[in-house]
Design a protein that fits this description.
Elements (H helix, E strand, L loop, with lengths): L2 H10 L6 E4 L5 H18 L3 E6 L19 E5 L5 E7 H7 L1 E2 L3 E9 L2 E9 L8 E2 L4 E4 L2 E4 L4 H11 L8 E6 L1 H7 L2 H7 L7 H10 L3 E5 L2 E5 H7 L15 E5 L8 E6 L4 H13 L4 E6 L2 E6 L3 H13 L11 E4 L3 E7 L19 H9 L9 H11 L6 E5 L3 E7 L9 H17 L6 H7 L7 H13 L3 E3 L11 E3 L5 H6 L1
Parallel strand pairs: 1-2, 14-18
Antiparallel strand pairs: 2-7, 3-4, 5-8, 6-7, 9-10, 11-13, 12-13, 14-15, 16-17, 18-19, 19-21, 20-21, 22-23
Helix pairs in contact: 2-4, 10-12, 13-15, 14-15
């Protein structure tokens, strides 16, 4: 890894289940535990690499440098009495000796701001079983190392990732002529809506191949990929492995699943072909009222269209196709909308606003951006947060459900004073994050403006700010500022003190 690549990684990734920062760690046994815990977490997340980096503080990500050198370090080895002493065994030899199975460890020495750093890239792309260190499986839970057997659901996810290859580019239908493709795929919709100029069959063929919709295997013989079928199928039932991946929409009477569902619908065509119809089906079941502004009739929905649209697109593009028996779902209750998809986020949900987006399905994400369904620059969550604030709704709730699903909930309007402590914390955190990425900070006065509160309700905001800080969601921008001028940033933001100390 080059220095500029390492700097980019540090700037964009906090400590997580696949990234760990250290300054002076040299104990071989501890390093081994980190390697296998990080590696197993990468396997569970279905990503090819994890990283252990020396020379960076874990919380602030301040680059402090290190004198650690993996090729010069000797391993501490326990004797029969359990005492450790430095041996003549090199650290790298010691680690490789206890690797099970054999693992590709890539050590890179880099310099950033004249400071020495070491980056260990843990390559798990070729593995077909979980990693063990000295016979014990480790995995990351948050930012700590734990024994894998304590988390059977995570171990199950690791084994599931071994059962699949690159889903998007596998073939859903093979041996078709170009004319036969139109029996299965809505090519008219493709030509009409994609952001490319396709004015003849040759251009369409080239585009389909370039965008991995089909693979050309002979002069006039094509295979349809899972990507092509999932996005452009006229009827997903013609693709047995994909028919249960279509999105399912349910409208309940009332606020509980115990109530009867008054609408159930599974979309039968590809998501590019049907996206507008899916949105219409959802919004048709969300209450609205009519507003007349300057004589113009406008429908104001209980939940903003833009928020629903962005969350729906995210659920489709970030789903994990290696998880069987699950599909993207939209559940509509009187007081909330719940959108879920198979697979947990590859990014900590609280960092969706500032960390560059990642997708398990890059080909799908790239294709949907060409149809303006998603945005490659990753501003969807920004729009969701802003739209909910403008509609005076509680903040979006994003939860990982075990190790197999992500669930996002938006709820009906509620006065700030009636929000629970957790809801207030989330509302303040997301507002702070939205403003921070737009080079602004929050304060008591900005929050009163955002939540439409009066000056007399300043104490209500003060209590909520204190609660958000206690929950480690925000912190002061300048801890030395007077109470009247105190501003706040998200917990991952850079404060005056951080800049001063660096």
């Amino acid at each position: 890894m080059k220095s500029e690549e390492l700097l980019h990684l540090i700037e964009n990734d906090n400590e997580s289940e696949t990234v760990e920062y250290k300054t002076g760690l040299k104990d071989a046994k501890t390093i081994g535990q980190y390697i296998y815990a990080l590696g197993n977490s990468a396997l569970a997340a279905n990503v090819p690499h994890a990283y252990l980096i020396w020379g960076v503080e874990d919380l602030t990500k301040k680059i402090v440098g290190t004198n650690f050198d993996p090729y010069l370090e000797k391993a501490f080895v326990e004797n029969k009495k359990g005492k450790s002493s430095k041996s003549n065994i090199s650290l790298t030899f010691y680690l490789n000796k206890y690797i099970d199975p054999k693992l590709n460890l890539i050590w890179d020495k880099c310099q950033i701001d004249d400071k020495d750093l070491v980056c260990l890239t843990i390559d798990v792309s070729h593995l077909n079983q979980p990693l063990k260190f000295m016979g014990i499986d480790y995995i990351r839970v948050g930012t700590s190392n734990q024994k894998l057997n304590m988390f059977p659901e995570k171990e199950q996810r690791i084994w599931e990732t071994f059962e699949s290859s690159k889903f998007e580019l596998e073939f859903a239908k093979t041996g078709l002529t170009y004319n036969q493709l139109s029996e299965y795929l809505d090519l008219d919709s493709y030509v009409k809506n994609i952001t490319e100029n396709l004015n003849n069959d040759a251009a369409v063929k080239d585009s389909l191949v370039h965008n991995n919709i089909v693979a050309q295997v002979d002069k006039d013989l094509f295979n349809i990929t899972n990507l092509g079928a999932y996005t452009l199928a006229k009827d997903l039932h013609k693709f047995p492995l994909l028919q249960d991946r279509s999105i399912f929409i349910t409208k309940y009477r009332g606020n509980m699943k115990l109530a009867n569902a008054i609408y159930n619908e599974a979309e039968s065509s590809g998501i590019v072909v049907s996206f507008d119809k899916i949105m219409k089906d959802i919004m048709d079941h969300i209450p609205y009222h009519e507003n007349y502004d300057a004589g113009v009739r406008k429908e104001i929905y209980k939940f903003p269209i833009i928020a629903v649209r962005e969350l729906l697109a995210n659920a489709l593009v970030h789903q994990d196709f290696t998880i069987s028996g699950m599909r993207p779902m939209v559940e509509i209750f009187d007081n909330r909308v719940v959108i879920s998809n198979p697979g947990i986020p590859l990014i900590e949900p609280l960092r969706f606003l500032d960390v560059p987006p990642r997708s398990r399905n890059p080909e799908l994400a790239n294709l949907l951006s060409k149809f303006h369904i998603t945005e490659s620059r990753g501003t969807g969550i920004d729009k969701v947060v802003y739209a909910l604030e403008q509609a005076k709704l509680p903040a979006v709730e994003i939860l990982s459900k075990g190790t197999t699903a992500t669930q996002v909930t938006i709820r009906e309007k509620k006065a700030f004073k009636d929000l629970s402590v957790t809801e207030k914390n989330e509302a303040i955190y997301w507002d702070a994050s939205l403003k921070y990425v737009n080079d602004m900070k929050i304060s008591n006065s900005t929050l009163r403006e955002t939540f439409q509160l009066t000056d007399k309700e300043a104490s209500l905001i003060s209590k909520a700010l204190a609660s958000s800080m206690e929950a480690n969601l925000i912190r002061p921008y300048d801890a030395n500022a007077g109470k009247k001028f105190m501003e706040y940033i998200p917990y991952w933001g850079v404060s005056v003190q951080d800049v001063h100390h660096s």
